[in-house]
Amino acid sequence: MLSLECGLCALVFIFLFCIAAYFSNPASKSSINYFR
């Protein structure tokens, strides 16, 4: 259970980081599309 929660926390952290980078730099659309 602990490992599952850690994995979910990591996914949420990466998701929020991507959104923050997207809003802070609109020119990073190409990089986000590259990861998608």
Task: Give a verbal description of the structure.
The protein has 36 residues and is mainly alpha-helical. The chain has one domain. The chain contains two helices and no strands. It has helices at 2-24, 29-35. The model has no long low-confidence stretch (mean pLDDT 75).
- How many domains, as an integer? 1
Structural class: mainly alpha
| Number of continuous helical runs | 2
Order of helices and strands: HH
- What is the CA-atom radius of gyration, in angstroms? 12 Å
The biggest sheet amounts to: none
As residue ranges, the low-confidence spans are none
End-to-end gap: 28 Å
Name the helicity range: over 70%
**Overall average pLDDT:** 75
Question: How many beta-strand runs?
Answer: 0
- Shape category: rod-shaped
**Strand portion:** under 5%
